[in-house]
Amino acid sequence: MSEKIIEIENLSKLYRLGDIGTGSLKNDVQRWWAKLRGKEDPFMKVGAENDRSKKGQSDYVWSLKDISFSINKGDALGIIGKNGAGKSTLLKLLSRVTAPTQGQIKIKGRVASLLEVGTGFHPDLTGLENIFLNGAIMGMTKSEIKAKLEEIVEFSGIAAYIDTPIKRYSTGMRVRLGFAVAAHLDSEILIVDEVLAVGDSVFQKKCIDKMTKVRSEGRTILFVSHQLSAVKSLCKTGVVLENGKLRFQGDIDGALAYYATTNNSIKGQELKLGDLDRHQSVGQIKFERIVFENYPVNFGETIKFKLILQTQDHETLFSDIDMAVNINDRNKSCIVHCANKFLGKNFSHTDDQMEYHFEIENNLKPGYYYMTLFLRSKDVIQDWIEDQIILEIQGSNPYGYHSNGLIQGNVLPGFNISQVNSKVLL
Ligand SMILES: Nc1ncnc2c1ncn2[C@@H]1O[C@H](COP(=O)(O)OP(=O)(O)OP(=O)(O)O)[C@@H](O)[C@H]1O
């Protein structure tokens, strides 16, 4: 069994928005005194609103709320979420830069982190002095740091400025040095927040390569980036945060698919498919959108959706269409397969834009599933989106927690597909 290196239990962090006084000097002094002793703010209103899409009533925001999960030794974990989801807060808590409001974190091993630009560096000290300061904070001896020094300076690419105080550095230079220090010092865990947002593409590639090497050495990585392709290439597992809550934990493909589905995304019931990764396909006809009649789909309710396809090549008629939709379980095993072949229906693509309407009997237990969309015309694969759309079946499970194996999908449930012409209106 894999060894757990980080365990996070019911972790919550409440922030005050802006540093406004409490309204009385006595209360302000009480708050200051509590802070000084590392205690909770006595005026904190626990239970404050957290929906960032609405203007809250309170001065407080739960930056993280009741997060529990664990990370195995050697894992490379991608932390994904929209702006303000709580990603940086989680990394700050794990790096002990700030303390949790509630819950606890157990870490076995030393942590090296590159957080927001500037955190961990003293502005008046030179680059070199800061390298020693960071190493010392991590419990390394002077000679241990010296042994790594050349590599760190070389990687950062700022050798000429190494004796200049950090406050004179540009943002890019600070990030370069910060990453070089975090990645090269001996630590069991490397935490990196948005290093790719700053720096040119050469430096970005260098960072990814270095993290891949760190991972291959068996060290654990926690990585936050809005560049999802970088997250995908580096990480094996992923978590998705949304408004301070943990929404998904699993393999990185699942996390990215969940994020794509919820973020891109299902505005109302609709998901645009244009930006999703494709499997080897020609792309003269492409899946453009999926529109559910109801999303999330309720337990037991027929899954109804339409796929809207757009032709890139307006002249050609695409005949002998093989259209298939799979619903796969969390292990990517197919549990529902619907294809026109099995209905004895022959489709031809006769117009710029065509719709295919699906109705699938639903005996899936509540949870998340992956959908695969496939389209072939005359043995040429036109479009193939594999396991990137998350299908959520919601509702309580009538068998309670012990239903595994009782409610499952059939490979061929009752289903129907019909083709509808819909002319482009433009
Ligand atoms: N020091 C702070 N004081 C007050 N509120 C804070 C503080 N730090 C974070 N927050 C709030 O906590 C929430 C989560 O912020 P956080 O920076 O962790 O999100 P994030 O997912 O890293 O976002 P981004 O992708 O934009 O960096 C936000 O609503 C933010 O305003």
Automatic annotation (TrEMBL):
<dbReference type="InterPro" id="IPR027417">
    <property type="entry name" value="P-loop_NTPase"/>
</dbReference>
<keyword id="KW-0067">ATP-binding</keyword>
<dbReference type="InterPro" id="IPR050683">
    <property type="entry name" value="Bact_Polysacc_Export_ATP-bd"/>
</dbReference>
<keyword id="KW-0813">Transport</keyword>
<dbReference type="Pfam" id="PF14524">
    <property type="entry name" value="Wzt_C"/>
</dbReference>
<protein>
    <submittedName>
        <fullName>ABC transporter ATP-binding protein</fullName>
    </submittedName>
</protein>
<keyword id="KW-0547">Nucleotide-binding</keyword>
<dbReference type="InterPro" id="IPR015860">
    <property type="entry name" value="ABC_transpr_TagH-like"/>
</dbReference>
<dbReference type="Pfam" id="PF00005">
    <property type="entry name" value="ABC_tran"/>
</dbReference>
<comment type="similarity">
    <text>Belongs to the ABC transporter superfamily.</text>
</comment>
<feature type="domain" description="ABC transporter">
    <location>
        <begin position="46"/>
        <end position="268"/>
    </location>
</feature>
<dbReference type="GO" id="GO:0005524">
    <property type="term" value="F:ATP binding"/>
</dbReference>
<dbReference type="InterPro" id="IPR029439">
    <property type="entry name" value="Wzt_C"/>
</dbReference>
<dbReference type="InterPro" id="IPR003439">
    <property type="entry name" value="ABC_transporter-like_ATP-bd"/>
</dbReference>
<dbReference type="InterPro" id="IPR003593">
    <property type="entry name" value="AAA+_ATPase"/>
</dbReference>
